[in-house]
Amino acid sequence: MQPADLEQGIIMLRHCKKDIYCAYVPDCCPVCGQSAVASQRLEDAPVRIPSPFLNGHREKFSFLLKPTEGTFLRGYDGMSDLHVGITNSKGIVYNYNEAGVHREEWGWEQCVGVPLLQPDMYGLINQWDKYLEDFSIAETWLPHRYEENQHNCYTYALAFVNCLLAAQGKTQKLSKNEFTEQFVLSRTRRASKYITIYQTILHDNFYIIDTPRAKQFKGYSNATGNLLQ
Ligand SMILES: [Zn+2]
What we know:
Layout: H1 3-6, E1 9-15, E2 18-22, E3 47-50, E4 62-67, E5 82-87, E6 93-97, E7 100-104, E8 112-115, H2 122-136, H3 153-167, H4 176-204, E9 206-210, H5 213-218, H6 223-227
Antiparallel strand pairs: 1-2, 1-3, 2-9, 4-5, 4-8, 5-6, 6-7
The structure holds zinc ion.
């Protein structure tokens, strides 16, 4: 299996009281060497763990996060700089850096995404592209105003989020920490686990951990919900 396929999802099966993550279902259990599939109970059958990453250009009205260089699954070491942006109704990603505001149609194919609207917010949906464009041409987002720590891509995206909140009549603004804790952290934690599993499989073919005790008896109740959150 090529890394590109593995980027779409990982297989997980259970044997020898282990959770075994791999790119494809193996003929034999890598722990005991027995035929892995034949001896399995139904609840231990292989499941596919979908990638937590989204193609940002298919996510409307969303906050996106990705490495400034490269992608999460290729080259990201957990410490590299991250870049954020906001999509319009057509998946064009508005983002701010030292060269000003960019409107990008590619380059955000592997992101962590936070949807910013509910599907029934028709008023905002209809106005979104104009709001985002008007917001972006303000003097405050000119290139010379950029400052790496205090006036950066996150400042821009969060200011837009706060404009949305104000447009909905909310007086309270979200700080960067509040927004991160409420909306971003659970997603980046899940992404981080996936990166670890992905990189271990690339290197060793398998990522193996003890099955949590409770799950040894229950099987899967919700494959993705339980495993990578
Ligand atoms: Zn086994």
